[in-house]
Design a protein that fits this description.
Elements lengths: L2 H6 L12 H4 L6 H6 L6 H17 L5 H28 L1 H4 L17 H19 L4 H9 L1 H10 L6 H9 L2 H10 L4 H22 L3 H7 L4 H5 L3 H22 L4 H20 L5 H9 L1 H17 L1
């Protein structure tokens, strides 16, 4: 079989980044595994990483080599644990994904990788994540293990509740606690406030994301906040994002932040308002674009916090 023929057997995931390096540069034999880890769709990694980095900077008085080292560790952890979580999700959802237009091009329903090989890949990623976690203090290690139950239950939530996004918020934003614990060796009020605020943020952006699959989900019998809210989505987004901004504002009084954080807070509020204004819940392409814009959102807050710590 020629390399060109081999490449033709690897389907491009429906919502992959256009011209992703996974399809242009990666060896053909790696591509199913890179797709399982969502390397062709990196936005989820950023969404997992942002609360980690924000929390580390909020807990730190300055930007030191130790801070940067912790941030680098959490970046590696975010990549492998997001990949592990998505691989686990695909293993559980293998009989659902082939019935939904957007997900049937994933490696397992597309027949690009076997269930067994995907399970082995899950174990490998989990071991790497475990090795990263062991680099932190014991409180952070124990806290990291505490997230495993949330991760394990998440794929089943859309079968029993219209609010799997609420459970995802608990899972995806665990880094808001981990980052603080990595610096302080314990948890305090600012970490909990950031975690709660990010939970509302996730409710917002993942509801937008879920509107891509609304019709297929209704047919298959999968539940989501998009189906629960329907035409009430836009005002609900205002509520979710409003609560997130309130939490970020509360951190002004609870954490050691300065003028650059205040400036970034104004810009992130504008960004979230623009998301609500721009989103069209009946256009999957627009939903995906607005969802992906949360990478930019994260950078805005990150820049403000970084400048505060530098100065």
């Amino acid at each position: 079989m020629t390399n060109q023929t081999q490449q033709s057997t690897i389907a491009v995931t429906a919502d992959a980044v256009k011209d992703s390096w996974v399809y242009r540069k990666a060896p053909n034999s790696w591509r199913p595994y890179l797709k399982l880890a969502r390397m062709d769709r990196p936005v989820g990694t950023w969404l997992l990483l942002w609360p980690c980095w924000w929390s580390i900077l909020l807990a730190s008085d300055s930007l030191t080599l130790s801070t940067l080292y912790d941030m680098a560790l959490l970046a590696v952890g975010a990549v492998v644990m997001r990949g592990a979580g998505c691989t686990f999700n695909d293993l559980i959802d293998k009989d659902i994904d082939n019935k939904v237009e957007r997900t049937r091009s994933r490696p397992i329903p597309a027949g690009e990788v076997s269930f067994f090989k995907a399970a082995v890949f899950l174990v490998v990623q989990s071991y790497i994540g475990f090795a990263v976690l062991l680099q932190f203090n014991m409180f952070t290690v124990a806290l990291g293990f505490g997230s495993l139950a949330l991760v394990a239950v998440y794929p089943f939530m859309k079968r029993v509740t219209f609010w799997p996004q609420a459970w995802l918020g608990l899972t995806l934003n665990w880094g808001a606690l981990l980052g603080w614990a990595a610096v302080e060796g314990s948890l305090s009020l600012p970490a909990y406030v950031l975690y709660a605020g990010c939970w509302f943020w996730t409710l917002g952006f993942d509801t937008i994301y879920a509107h891509q699959d609304r019709e297929d989900d209704a047919i298959v019998g999968v539940k989501s906040s998009a189906l629960a809210l329907g035409d009430k989505t836009i005002p609900a987004l205002g509520l979710f994002y409003g609560c997130f901004i309130i939490a970020l504002t509360a951190l002004v009084m609870l954490a050691n932040v300065g003028v650059f954080y205040y400036i970034s807070l104004a810009f992130v509020a504008i960004h979230l308002i623009k998301q609500i204004k721009d989103v069209d819940i009946n256009d999957p392409d627009v939903c995906l674009r607005v969802f992906r814009s949360n990478i930019t959102f994260g950078w805005i807050l990150m820049i403000g916090l970084t400048l505060d710590r530098l100065i």
